[in-house]
User: Fold this.
Amino acid sequence: MKHKAWSGRFKEATNKLVEEMNASISFDKRLYKFDILGSIAHAMTLKKAGILSDKEAKKIINGLKSVEKEIDAGKIEFTAAMEDIHMAVESRLTEKIGALGGKLHTGRSRNDQVALDIRLFLKDQIFEIIHLLHGFRQALVDVAEVNMDVIMPGYTHLQRAQPVLLSHHLLAYYEMFVRDAGRLIDCLDRMDEMPLGAGALAGSPYKLDRHYTAGLIGFSRVTENSLDSVSDRDFIIEFLSAASIMMVHFSRLSEEIILWSSQEFGFVELSDAFSTGSSIMPQKKNPDIAELARGKSGRVYGNLISLLTTMKALPLAYNKDMQEDKEPLFDTVDTIKAILSVYGPMLRTMKVNKDKMLRATETGFLNATDAADYLASRGVPFRQAHEVAGKAVGYCIEKGKTLDMLTFDEWKALSPVFGKDIKAAVSIKRSLNTRKVYGGTALETVKKRLKAVKKEMSGGCC
Assistant:
């Protein structure tokens, strides 16, 4: 591109180093479909305003569609001289239809053009991510249902605490990812504003029907302030924030998968198809997908911090700093989509070691609270009951026993309130199934929740 659209007042050619640093075409070329979609809508708006004739608008629109087909087919070579996707498309359009191509930019700036393109791109990607997230949540639900009655230790401080159902544990992550979907839907609502017509910063002198343009490309409303229209990147920051929270959840789940698949835990075994080996140790089977998901959380957080830092001190309106918004956004979109695509199949093919999980509940005194609750239900103040149960644990450690191994006489020596039904009261299954409170881990309660979740999932992808 020898002649630049803005070169009229310049007497010297752009330094090659400046050209390379200034260009965004290497990464914003992926916006081409959205740029062309917006340009077609703008051409139709110019026709409605009487700036383009029917014939001119038709020629421009057909030219734009032809350019899109060329890019689809890989026939256009993008170079730094093109600067960005907007100039690349306009330049090729002008080559195809002549000077008429230059009319397309009437009443428009690259500032409102890029604000439109990035919104169109992100709307499209959020819909795709929500769809992928629905599929991943379905995998969580399916694995929970298959392992409905599997009992495992619940943990606090990574110390065995109380018995829970694996299905209940997995559905905890379902709830997290439901909130993630909700945050993405909120993002969509706030970004559903059409900025085209804001011009460079002050609006357009032409009689452009912005509401008409918005309707053409699927926006429910238009932006209210031209300055804000071109300088706003809140919608990207909000998406990156929602994505970061989602990655918190993936990182936590990944950490547990990694622990559970270790020989120390042995709760699960990942499929060979979703594991890797060692180049030196033949016996190794590594949970690399879970580790990568955990590691990529830092990458997504970094993208959020990057854009927050870029935007924090920018005066109105557009500044070239804002060109730095796209790479963190694109990287986050690609990272989230990759993880969502692979994680569900990994969980579905994971083997659960039911017996190992159950055996793990038999040590660590997970039923100690049940001993305290037994006394509390018979009138002993809970703090006093807690102390008695603690002494029972200490006694068991000293004698090398578990609570369910204690004789009735040993229980009675700890407190005269204990009856002959104490042994049944501290059984692991009873401990679990007494927790019937709404949201609890009792099998009966989890079955009800799973039924409700399956109904939610059948209602749509959100």
Residues 111-358 form a domain with the Fumarase C; Chain A, domain 2 fold (CATH 1.20.200.10). The longest helix spans residues 110-146. Residues 70 and 76 are 6 Å apart (CA to CA).
